[in-house]
Amino acid sequence: MKKIDVSVIAGDGIGKEVMPEALKVLETVADVHGGLSFSFKHYPWSCDYYIEHNEMMPEDGLDQLQESDAVFLSAVGDPNLVPDHISLWGLLVKIRREFEQVINIRPAKQMKGIQSPLVHPNDFDLMVVRENSEGEYSEAGGRIHRGEDELAIQNAIFTRKGIERAVEYGFQLAQSRRGHVTSATKSNGIVHSMPFWDSVFESVAEKYPDVKTASNHIDALASFFVTRPQEFDVIVASNLFGDILTDVGAAIMGSIGIAPAANINMNGKYPSMFEPVHGSAPDIYGKGIANPIGQIWTGKMMLDHFGEHELGNTLLQVIEEVLQDGIKTPDIGGTSSTTEVSDAIVTRLKALK
Ligand code: NAD
Ligand code: IPM
Ligand code: MN
């Protein structure tokens, strides 16, 4: 029996609603497989936890997570309770950084059973590889109080090593896909770090003569995601560019509520973390209508990570079947609840046994 130990952090807002549904689905998946089992260990770390303990996770929190094979997280942030910069740096970004999850992979593809908002939806199937440890999200900066001259500084820090490993990941991924990598850039030099990004991209590209490349300014690229997403295979992007692009990728699929993601540790020293693209959605929290598919599809990425590709593909197929049955939450035009969607997925999975 293959056993996967998973640390579960439901976090805030709709995280608390979609997480139990995704776990239910993963348990069913393991049952259908027969030779696989999950052990879930729950951690209450969230903004509620902060109110009680004055910290987002205990001091030895990372040591506790280190015991597991993977972290499965939903969403962090409740701006009504705790300022975002405290909750995010104290939990989500802390795990990404300390566990050296330097690559963030985020697929977007046209799903069966969902109406894309694009006027002319063509089949698209792309993967954004986002640099996840540095760039515009550097810790170097701050707010300086100088009376009327108050200001804030944010330094973007790009290292050759950081760019190289993200771009390398993109090229290797492209070799197993359709052999094309696009670099998200701003090489007109307006952003000083981007000519450096470009030169590292070009030097990595030389090692992969079998992979075709393109380079687009981030502003144009965001618009191409809307007008011709079918032309993209793998896109490599810096931390902030990748963040923004993947919300566009989610939108052209139909909703941010279905978009999955994985934060990958590449050196094997720490667990990777699986976490959907969406946040805690305070505007719909408590209504029972959050789309659970982002979290469930993120579970599929966790299955892939542990080599269970066939099972992962079966899960994705079942998700599409349920969507085609019209069992959908309101964000994608349906009237079903969070639980009705996950229950339908569980029922279809059980029928496979
Ligand atoms: P958000 O993703 O929470 O919400 C944006 C919009 O998408 C909202 O209208 C919301 O209702 C909708 N939405 C999101 N997920 C949905 C789902 N599963 N089903 C249906 N609709 C869904 O982004 P935001 O409003 O900018 O941020 C809210 C909070 O979440 C903030 O504190 C933010 O910092 C945090 N956040 C956390 C993460 C994370 O933990 N990975 C990611 C993004 C935002
Ligand atoms: C995401 C989120 C995070 C990010 C925030 C909450 C720090 O937007 O995972 O996409 O910008 O990385
Ligand atoms: Mn984001």
UniProtKB/TrEMBL annotation:
Domain Isopropylmalate dehydrogenase-like: 5-345
EC number, UniProt record: 1.1.1.83
Chain coiled-coil ranges: none
Keywords: Manganese, Metal-binding, NAD, Oxidoreductase
Catalytic activity: (R)-malate + NAD(+) = pyruvate + CO2 + NADH
Keyword Kinase: no
Cofactor(s) listed in the protein's UniProt record: Mn(2+); Mg(2+)
Molecular function in Gene Ontology: tartrate dehydrogenase activity
Gene3D superfamilies (UniProt xref): Isopropylmalate Dehydrogenase
InterPro entries: ICDH/IPMDH, IsoCit/isopropylmalate_DH_CS, IsoPropMal-DH-like_dom, TTC_DH
PANTHER family assigned: D-MALATE DEHYDROGENASE [DECARBOXYLATING]
Protein family membership: Belongs to the isocitrate and isopropylmalate dehydrogenases family.
Protein's name according to its UniProt entry: D-malate dehydrogenase (decarboxylating)
Species of origin: Halobacillus shinanisalinarum
